[in-house]
Design a protein that fits this description.
Blueprint lengths: L16 E3 L2 E3 L6 E5 L7 H14 L3 E5 L3 H12 L5 E5 L3 H9 L4 E4 L7 H13 L3 E7 L5 H7 L4 H17 L5 E6 L3 H14 L5 E2 L7 H17 L5 E2 L7 H14 L7 E5 L10 H11 L7 E6 L5 H5 L4 E4 L6 E5 L2 E6 L4 H18 L1
Parallel strand pairs: 3-4, 3-10, 4-5, 5-6, 6-7, 7-8, 9-10, 11-12, 12-13
Antiparallel strand pairs: 1-2, 13-14, 14-15
Length: about 375
Amino acid sequence: MSTRSFRDIKRKKTKVISVGDVKIGGDHPITVQTMTNTISSNVKDTVNQINKLSEAGADLVRISVPNQQSSLALKEITKNVRVPIIADIHFHYKRAIEAAVSGAHCLRINPGNIGSIDRVHEILKAAKDNNCSIRVGVNAGSLEKDLLEKYKEPCPEALCESALRNIKIFEDKDFFNFKISVKSSDVFLSVKAYRLLSEKCDYPLHLGITEAGSLMPGSVKSSIGIGMLLMEGIGDTIRCSLTDDPVEEVKVGYEILKSLNLRHKGVNIISCPSCSRQGFPVVNTVKILEERLSHIKEAITLSIIGCVVNGPGEASQTQIGLTGGGKDDHMMYLSGLPHHKVASDKIIEEVVGLVENKSKELKNN
């Protein structure tokens, strides 16, 4: 079985920052993050969702902090979750200070709506005093008024200038534990802004296409925008902003990283679209296997191909493979080699058993 990589991506070396116990930047793995959609002041619901997202693989989770009840709730929330928490702050700088004091591991502030430099200075002091990192979250929808007047509309240069302006504010106060994003719902605007910013600074970049839409269109937009940048070596942490269950954001994020050979987690299923040559119902089989194997954390490659046109070739490249044949004549491959045959009505249990055994083997090694 070949393990060759035909495209090795050389990441830009950025500064390393800490978000709780997670390192971002440098040679550290590109992290996947998402955001809760519960009422943040409801500690029980928010903790339950965060732990569900952590189980799905989220490295970091952001929660909205729109009021004092939410910022104070962070004291209990952070005690009962397994991942670092990012407090999302808009408009009221005191919420950021309260969040830092309450145990948030990172503050996301938007320079376009946080207020005066003096208020930013107060946030920086609270963050430094409480060992809290910051994300400078520049957004095309909320740029500073003077930049909108200068550029007439949101553009890559405006987003980049906003980010650089805030970098200087942070550096002037000897605060360096921060990452930056320059997001837009427009793929082209976002990509160009990130490229510009990457040329001008070496702080870690948080990638995303903001307000990308529902699951299907949002996944496509995120994959194109985030994927283009990652292929160029740009980006240290990502979020796919989808109008859907935030668990889906985590899944899509990992699929992007897996497709670029940047990070491996769980079962990577290579499957055919199916046609009249299929020896078993490929589409339904893959859907069931995705659900049954969602608990696997180890990186395992699995090919599910309906016929012998591409089946043997794909199986030779995966740890476990299935190629469709006659009704009771489907071939299972292990480590790229033909191993045994399986009947149609035994496919699901056979594949699940093989993957789970492989998972145990990898854990023990």
